[in-house]
Batch of 4 targets.
Target 1
Amino acid sequence: MRRLGDVLKEQYGEKVYKLSLSSGCTCPNRDGTLGFGGCSFCSQGGSGDFAAAPAPLEEQLREAKARIAGKTDARRFIAYFQSFTNTYGDPGRLEALYADALSREEIVALSLGTRPDCLGEDILATLCRLQRIKPVWLELGLQTVHEDSARRIRRGYPLQVFEESYARVKALGFPVVVHVIFGLPGESREQMLDTVRYLAALSPPPDGVKLQMLHVLRGTALGEEYELCPFPLLSMEEYADLVAESLAILPEETVIHRLTGDGPGKLLLAPDWTRNKKRVLNAIQRAIRNREATVN
């Protein structure tokens, strides 16, 4: 398993940390273009509940660095625009914002959370210009390859859109990180692993993958559904086993950007075990060791 932190340290010779920032973008699944309210699991923060609030970039950077000061002594950073859809907006405004971030000596790369249906020719031309300054990573929210699940979580695009966008941005030389959620309502263990197998079979394979357990959050459509009629969720052990199996499926060159996610504590309805990230990571390490022992 190649972990992001280790890869960055090899590349830059020191620790590199992500700064969660906001571009001020919205999402076509929120502004009425495709729908309102976003994907059913998405909070009002647009999956960026830990990002700096929209503000001038200098202020956001200062706030983001202060927030992580107790966690790391890193001096170099990735500008991670996380909330909502960060390629959905005026290309000129976004180019100026992202170029400002990349112009800063301590910023080594730009990472943009986005949707595969928000990568038109105009924004791609913008991103190509930015890529000439420093690396630009695109983080695509796939979550699942199953169309029934995608409709249930109101993802708003079919798998074919992901496939076309993925091929286009990889051909342009952008590193691509794909987000996957385990535990979506109605999906079996094998269906979840189907998503991982699909990613492993892509040519070329994803540069990175983020794995996450489904967080059921208060104030979301999924949260309302769960409070009315709770649906089964994975146990910590089941999730850890899925992650261990996924790591064995994914190609070695795919970097693991995340093994588990952080849900905002005040909003989290379930599963409660996700609150203790250290415990979850320990369970994943045990599952990896147990799988290796069984295989060998």
Target 2
Amino acid sequence: MKKIRNMVSVLMIVLVAVLATGTVVERLRGSEYALSHVYSAWWFVALWALVALGMVFMLFKGKTWKRPVICALHLSILLILLGALLTMLTGQHGRMLLEPGKATHTFYEGNATENHPVELPFTLTLDRFETEMYEGTNKPKDFVSYLQVTDGEQHEDVVISMNHILRHKHYRFYQSDFDEKGNSILDVARDPWGIAITYMGYALLFLSLVVLLAVPSLRGGTTKQSISRKSLHAVTWSWLSVLVVLAILLHIRMLTHQLLPVLRSPFFSLHISTIVTSYALLFAIMVVGIIAIIKPKDKDRLERLKALSMAMLYPAVALLAIGIFIGAVWANVSWGNYWSWDPKEVWALITLLIYAAPLHEKLWQSFQKPVFYHVYGILAFLSVLITYFGVNLLLGGVHAY
């Protein structure tokens, strides 16, 4: 068991290092190069496979099936990884150009340097493309394609716009771009197996996290007796209240401000509010760590501060995980690809992995030592700073702002 635990530890460290390196490679060589040489490389897939196998072994040896919620949580991660693998192996992604009045049944799959045509079992005909503006301004509110789907003898008039896609025979079409000639450019995706498995993983992850947040006694760990159950509930529900208020405020902003078309989605307020609330909790954990290190006083005080920090860590990690998969669903609805290895996505994942480690203090017993835990919590916040600020200033990507 110890050898496997050490192996999993090494694999997780290597995985985090590779993910971080991949964002630097993307900055220096471009996204296509990083995707082909890192994120889609066979050795990267093998690394994830080894991590998954290690997780399965640890779950089996730890008899996790005796704790159904914890077992379901880790099973959801395995489902998400399986869905990602199926997407890579069986999914299709490409683009098609629609010219007004011209029936089209071909899209092009591949990258900027090499692509090949793929025939659709039906045709699309663009009637017209329109850019809708906010009233009294030149600011775009939405991009809309009015077209007709012809499938044999059947004809159907449809509308595609930002966050409003067309689904037909397992193909999904997304408003991607347009040109000055009035042509519409659509992203095309076909991924019936990967999306289905991934969404099953997301649903199971969400349900597991909600149960663990609602019933803190199911979490396990070695410090839960250092803080009362009433206090655990108070910490959890106070931060969830902050989340609800923040989500409502962001939704009001979405309704009252002239946002870019892609941001005009109900996922916007949910994604941002969960992520920001999580980061606020992680900041509080860092502050508690600094207080503990500066004024340690006695062991009991360190234990109490650690218990308080752990009480915040559970909702922080849960909200970060939920925020990430809400963003993934939003990306899939808007662009047809729920994970694009954008630097901010990758660093959010790195942050999640880093902060998930202390939750496994029964496996990695160093986290049971209050001083080690608090120092780790202080240093771990560097990943939040890189995710929130470093990506914007140094790494770029579609999330940079």
Target 3
Amino acid sequence: MTFWIRSRGAATALAALAVGAVLSGCGSRGDEPDLVNGKTLFVGEGTCGSCHALARAGTSGNQGPDLDAAFGPAREVGQGAATVEGIVRSQIEHPALSSSMPPRLLTGSDARDVAAYVAFAAGRPGEDQGALAAAGAAQQSDEPAIVEDGVLTIPADPTGALAYTFPEAEAEAGQIEITMPNESPIDHNIAIEDDAGDVVGTGGESTISVDLDAGEYEYICTVPGHAEGGMIGTLAVE
């Protein structure tokens, strides 16, 4: 999800955009937003974090604007969360022509929740607390992945978070087959140096066969923005 919002460091610029959101009805809601759902979608299924940096969400995508930089200056001069929420809702509904995000990627309460979370978090120092802190967190193992039956299996995080379930892996030098099952709702692959597996959707497997000397290697997802968003791990080869 890519919000092409240009920050000029002035609240008036954001206010002008907000007028369009209000006139189109995008800034209204009939009930309270679910910030936990909004953050989960932002960092996971909505893939917003693969394109946008947002410190409180822990994302560092760079294909779209940095949302802290876009909304932080306006927040500092008193711009309200409702205005930011309206702008984001409007961008989800009608992305700019230069944006790679399709219109209405999220709809209904999901669009409302994501917009409300961005309005809550953008340009705001500190860390999320309680249930919000755990929302969208990757399900990663504390133990490294190891070779079993000749195959090193490193699944994509099934929640949609930009991560592998094993941030570390171990193998012996030589020919290594590595497979990445993908049960997440987002397309992923696995790659080491110049060897990259196919990008696969839900239920697919991305596989590579590599001949590695002893040393330390990085495995990454080569889908644009995913490695930058955190989909990266370390393979120790002995």
Target 4
Amino acid sequence: MSNKSADEIVELARQRIAANRQHQQMQHGQVRQHHDYLWRTTWLAVLGILSLSLLALPGVPLQWRLYAIVHGLVAQQHNIFVGGMQLPLCARNIGIYSSFLVTIGYLWARGRQHAGSFPPRSITRTLIALALIMIVDGFNSMAATMGRVPLYPPSNVLRILTGIGMGTGIAVAFLAIFNQALRQNVQRRQRVVRDWDDMAVIVTLNLLIPIVIYADLGFMYWPLAFLSFVGIISEVYAINVLLASLFMGYHRSITSLAQLARPATVAFLPTILLIGGLALLRFWWEGQRF
């Protein structure tokens, strides 16, 4: 057996340590992939159960189910009817939450999943102004409801339009904050909304909401109902996913949304408790009043 020099022994030891470390990393990666797979499966199962419960619950009309679930989240005054049926959200909230979903969908389709920069200042100021306009319109509407003289006659058209302005701003801000907070591969120089051409498309898509509503086409009731319903549930859930992810140590660590399966599954619980708890509380309070 040939004698090895000290340098050869040290080098051999280094190679063995490196091989062991690589093996441990491979094992850790396999375990993590297995855990991620289990969490993704669990997330899909919970989502499937909740969706099936919503759509297939016997004995209760689907229209009333949608109304009841969000009863604690929105005022459900100044209601909108399409084809003779009341939408589950009131006018202003239809604007806010439908536009939130439409705007997020457009930005995602345009490849802004990793964008980490807010829009140019002129667009940001415009979105802030639109949010302030909705607040003013809300106080004006409240004054009329309380029997006081409003600054101008309130209307559901204004409530929807000002709600759209607010919902668009929330969607743009949320996507930028979400990416900055959680993505390792965030593109900090990419703007969520690049320019006024982008804004023009977003505004056009969102303006289709009141156009379809006031066309009063009966077959559009369910698309409008689910758009607003899914919009408000998605916004509440997305905020809980963000908070759960930060609490569980996912700060600037993900490269794909699939890696959020664990906090996304956990976030179902506070979302259900919040939405369900507020709905039950409001129904109880209304029962006490009448």
